[in-house]
Structures are given as C-alpha cells and as structure tokens.
C-alpha cells in the first residue's frame, strides 16, 4: 500500500521536499500504511486535527485547489442530494 509523506499530518509533496502541501492533511492508513488499531488511528487523527486547528488559528488554513472537473462533480452531488431530499420530503 502506498502512503503519503507528511509533517504532523500535513502532506508534503515528496520526502525530498520539506514544503507542506496547502490544504491537504492525512491520518490513519494513508499516513502509515495498513497497521495499527483504532487507538493508533485516533492518535494520528489527533495530531492531524491539531495541525488543522493551528493553521485555522493562524489564518493559514487553505483549501486544496479544485479542478473544474472536481467542481462540476461537487455540483452534481449537490444537485443529486437536493433531488433526493426533495423526493423524500415530497412523499410525506
């Protein structure tokens, strides 16, 4: 299994580059591979959440850039969710 290189839960582009990748965080199996138990995932998540919180407080929290295709896909999901919700509510 492939893992992502990170510094305190913040993804870096490669092991040769200490620059972090804006808006991309990782924990659990993507961080260290398929090992450990729930408690291990929890400690990974806590470290990553601490990094996210610090970035938020410093006003440095950035969202990853989305391609137009990703934006379109999110839009389709929103439309699908709206239609599903509308059909469920309409049946009551």
Give the arrangement of secondary structure elements.
Blueprint: E1 6-7, E2 10-11, H1 29-32, H2 38-57, H3 68-90
Antiparallel strand pairs: 1-2
Please give the order of strands in the largest beta sheet: 1-2
What sequence of helices (H) and strands (E) makes up the elements? EEHHH
User: What characterizes the major β-sheet?
Assistant: 2 strands, antiparallel
Principal-axis shape equals extended
Let me know the number of strands: 2
Low-confidence stretches: none
Oligomerization state: single chain
CA(first)-CA(last) distance: 46 Å
Number of domains: 2
Mean pLDDT: 75
Going by helix content, strand content and strand pairing, the class is mainly alpha
Radius of gyration: 18 Å
Share of helical residues:
40-55%
Specify the number of helices: 3
- Please indicate the percent range of residues in DSSP E strands (runs of 2 or more): under 5%
Compact overview of the structure:
By secondary structure, the protein is mainly alpha-helical.
What does this structure look like?
There is one protein chain. Helices cover 51% and strands 4% of the residues. The protein has 92 residues and is mainly alpha-helical.
């Amino acid at each position: 299994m492939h893992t992502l290189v990170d510094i305190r839960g913040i993804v870096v582009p490669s092991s040769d580059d200490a620059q972090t990748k804006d808006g991309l965080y990782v924990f659990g199996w993507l961080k260290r591979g398929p090992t450990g138990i729930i408690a291990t995932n929890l400690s990974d998540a806590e470290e990553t959440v601490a990094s996210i919180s610090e970035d938020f407080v410093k006003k440095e929290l950035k969202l990853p850039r989305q391609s137009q295709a990703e934006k379109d896909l999110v839009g389709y999901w929103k439309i699908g969710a709206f239609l599903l919700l509308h059909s469920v509510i309409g049946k009551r």
